[in-house]
Design a protein that fits this description.
mainly alpha; flat; MetI-like fold; 76% helix
């Protein structure tokens, strides 16, 4: 009787579909607490300075590096190598991956080759690339390009394979051309998987960038870390690690922004 008088009660929405909810600030709090714990441990003597430097000393090293201008001196060649190598590898990987996903003969011919190349540690091929392309920029570009190529191929044709075939059949039943189905159904449906794979590919590119710069590079983040390690200068070494970490975070953030812009249609 009271329900009839009060009227219907609103029912909480339960159809979120496990959609991720953005919770701001938690990651920053965890990061700050971790740094505070390390700072306290090094000052109290629980953590040896020969094992971990103080975060405040690392921050001071980064500030001094920026003021001296050497930060950009090392960053500029590293960013150029990463951009050129990743652009070559990712663009070729997406193209080959889409072709593997669409054409059976291409799949039959290239999937075994990609499967053979994928598990090879790309760092082991650096001496070979030095012989082929020289110790200058060519070998570094080639190493990063190959390292980003194979995971991009695998993630791309996997994303194409996972496109809902019901939508493809629906497009065929409505008389859409092959190219229209690819452009309007297959590529948009595969885009989330391609962008997810891109995160992994670029992370591998950063790893290979450091390895390439440790061989025959005067400037670059990898060369900076190698110099600091040879002098056992932990503050400079961890400063280089922090720069790489920030580069990885910024890369992931940029891909996230691209996902937000290009995947607005996804609910």
């Amino acid at each position: 009787m009271s329900d009839a008088v009060d009227g219907p009660r609103p029912v909480r929405f339960r159809g979120g579909g496990f959609r991720p909810v953005s919770v701001r600030g938690v990651g920053v709090v965890v990061f700050v607490l971790l740094l505070a714990l390390i700072e306290w441990g090094t000052r109290a003597g629980w953590i040896s300075n020969l094992t971990l430097p103080r975060p405040s000393d690392v921050a001071a090293t980064l500030v001094a590096l920026a003021k001296s201008g050497m930060l950009w001196t090392h960053m500029a060649p590293s960013l150029t190598r990463l951009a050129v190598g990743s652009l070559l590898g990712v663009s070729a990987g997406i193209g080959v991956g889409v072709m593997i996903g669409l054409f059976s003969y291409v799949r039959a011919g290239l999937v075994p080759l990609v499967a053979a190349l994928f598990p090879i540690p790309k760092i082991a091929l650096l001496p070979l690339f030095v012989i082929w392309f020289g110790i200058d920029e060519g070998s570094k570009y080639a190493l990063i390009a190959l390292g980003t190529f194979t995971p991009t191929v695998v993630s791309t044709y996997g994303a194409v394979d996972n496109v809902d075939r019901t939508l493809v059949r629906m497009g065929q039943s409505f008389g859409l051309s092959w190219w229209s189905i690819v452009r309007k159904i297959v590529l948009p449906g595969a885009l989330p998987g391609i962008l997810s794979g891109l995160r992994v590919s670029l992370a591998i590119g950063i790893i290979l960038l450091v390895a390439a710069e440790m061989l025959g590079a005067e400037y670059g983040i990898g060369a900076y870390i190698l110099q600091a390690g040879s002098l056992y200068d932990l503050e400079r070494l961890f400063a280089g690690v922090v720069i790489l970490s920030v580069l990885g975070v910024l890369t992931s953030w940029a891909i996230g922004r691209v996902e937000q812009r290009m995947l607005r249609w996804r609910v």
